[in-house]
Specification:
The structure holds 2 protein chains of 2 kinds. By secondary structure, chain A is mainly α. In chain A, about 75% of the residues lie in helices and about 0% in strands. Chain B has 2 domains: about 240 residues, Rossmann fold; about 80 residues, 2-Layer Sandwich (Alpha-Beta Plaits), CATH 3.30.70.1340. Helix content of chain B is about 30%, strand content about 25%. The longest helix of chain B has 17 residues. Classes of the chains: A mainly alpha, B alpha/beta. The interface between A and B is large, with 48 and 63 residues.
Amino acid sequence: MTAYRSAPATNPREAADWSTGRVIRTNLRAMFGRAYPRIIGLSREPSWLFFEIFLPFLAVSAFVFVYRALEAPEEYIGFVVLGGAMTAFWLNVVWMMAAQFYWEKDQGNLELYFTAPMHLMSILAGMAIGGLVLTSSRALAVIGIGSVLYGVSYDVNQPLLLMGVFLLTMIPLYGLGMLFASLFLLWGREAFHLAQLLQEPIYFLGGVNFPLAALPGAVVGVVMATLPLGVGLDAMRQLAFADSGVEGVLPVGTEVAILAAMGVIFLIAARLALGYLEHLARREGRLTLRWQ
Amino acid sequence: MPDDLAIHARGVTRVYKAKPEPVTALGGIDLDVEPGEYFGLLGPNGAGKTTLIKILTTLLLPTAGTAMVAGFNVVTETAKIRRVINMVAGGEQSGYGLLTVREQLWMFSQFYGLPNREGWRRVDELVEITGLKEQSGQKIRTLSTGQRQKLNFARGLLNDPWVLFLDEPTLGLDVAAARDLREHTLSWKAAAPGRTLLLTTHYMVEAEQLCDRIAIVDRGMILALGTPDELRRRVQAESIFRIELDRLPQNGGLAALTDLPGVLSAVPTDDDATDAAGSDRVALKVALADDSALTSVVTAVAERGSHLIGLAKSEPSLEDVFVELVGRGFGDGDSARDEDS
């Protein structure tokens, strides 16, 4: 057996004395370390092709045929395909961000995250980055197949802005997921039911399968104030179908500002919720420990 | 000085909210563990061992009292403590099943901030040491329980911790896997002087084999603390020998033996070891004030026409110590807290 080796630090006080740079580097490494299983999962779990592309695509197809039967404007087909792609991100946020701490607790990972020297926000950020990479490939597949199969034509005059709005949408969306991660753990043992509860209502309120402007004004107001999926989707539809004549709820510039504000608010809220969760976990002794 | 100790605890108390009434998992623990010491907490389910580990690893706040690890306060200096400790629990299922052994260890190395290349080097080193080289490319969901626990042990050493907490590390392992893990722990002890181990277990052989000192814990209190030998001496001040003879001594018999200086008692044992021979063979339990009285006993036996067939010194086990202190065996306790299992 090869012998164990130990580092030459002279005492634990020296070993615990980290520079600010080392703290930052550790958190960045932790972030990418946590993203890794999600990214590598792309090639390890081919079943996602069926569950996360084919099945959602059936729902998209149903709306496509409804719109065609009703002789709705052709750009509605594009709206549905784009909405179908964005649902992949919402599913990812609900099941692989919001419910994740709950699963991690059951596996015993949460205890280890708490006792490791990085901030838990790095773990959440790692989950978000990994989820984003993983889900982007699924979303692109839905857009690609849907566009080809149903002959969607895009009128993109500002591709960089469209890409920017997409990325900006992801910040509050995953920020919301980070916030929910702590709240799910605080609220209850039935993360599964909470996740289900957040699925269909958000599809509806987010206007995933229809133009958001079709909803009553008061509902649209609530969506604009709380739901990054709805705001981002509305802005992206305006930019992806610029010449269609279909108007969004608000001008793109205003929606960009709303998304930016949501990003800041949700990330701060996630940070505060995480701090509260950690305090409560240590005080009550039931949130991080398995079988509690 | 508490700052110089690996672990320092004074009056550490932990009360869990519960219905119908709060449960006191720790009732005021005082404990000092020196750097480089391997220290064991030995006790039955519900003794409070795991609660103490959770407090020392910054997972739980004490309800009262002070605890320090590597000179840092567990309440106010959690970040510093987390840089110099690690923890491995028995039956741990941490990580992600789709990762390979190497990938899993690398991922955890990143949580401790090891640079990428150093992380892989450390991973490969630990994979080899723990005998997981053959499984290094295998997904962890395919590992056996023993292999899984070796992997957990390797994970616990990734950051070269100054204080390693092992919470029932051999729980659920078969005999060979448990022995293997104990050998790895001892190898780490030899290779990393100054590193401290806090082990919780309810396996006495494990505590005796691994630990320099042991605290016997029950219902949130330390009942006894010392080296394994010191603990044994607590329950047995006298020397006890089992002497097997071809027949009872003549000319006064057992009474003649008890009259000898230094002999406290001499009685036939109640075991049936002598029955099988179907002869006059007899086994005696002889209690002496100290070992030096043994010579006169052996001489007296010979003078009274008996021949010595066997001689063995009876050592109390740590379980004897526990039973003496608590008044019940390890398996007889009720669990104050399920978590402490």
